[in-house]
Amino acid sequence: MTETEIVDRVQCLVRERMAGQQAGHDVDHVLRVLKSAREIQAEVGGNRFVVELAALLHDLGDAKFHDGHERSAEFARDILSQLNVDYDTIEHVARIVDTISFRKAADPATLSLEAKVVQDADRLDALGAIGIVRTIEYGAAIGQPFYLSDNAAGKRKTGIDHFDEKLFKLHDLLNTDAARRIAGQREQFMRTFLDQFRHECGETK
């Protein structure tokens, strides 16, 4: 198979394996990451084939859906081996999906260019309109309110806290200028949304 055919086949397999998966880590998330990764790679370079495969496979074995065990690298090796992808490419993709998550906090200096591209694309999906929706959806899934008017002391975690605790920190964690440019636009949209939301809740006049 050609590289394009392999990418198409992997995409089909990911769709099948992730059917029904939710909490912001569904197949639509993966396809958005793939789109962003392609855009960033076109600007900064790197191996497009590796970037596309890693973007597609980065959440396939997410720990939230496998009893707390991260299995994306394992699943990536299995799928790509069956498609006769060469060993070096398989191992590169496996290293990427095993190290780019926010919770792994890998030293950027240890990441390949392709890993930086996919990591940036993944983090961008937590920003902008999509980031707002994912925050609300995740909160609903775990029973966490988005906002509480009487929560001034921060006694209970809310979705709105998530913006300052994590989302507004992502811009400075990005690896590429291409991603930072996109993030700046998305972050501004989020701040505008929060200003309007708080205004409608009566916090501001």
From TrEMBL:
Pfam family, one: HD
Annotated PROSITE patterns: HD
HD domain segment(s): 26-127
InterPro entries linked: HD/PDEase_dom, HD_domain
Matching Gene3D superfamilies: 1.10.3210.50
SMART domains: HDc (SM00471)
Protein's name in the database: HD domain-containing protein
Organism: Novipirellula rosea
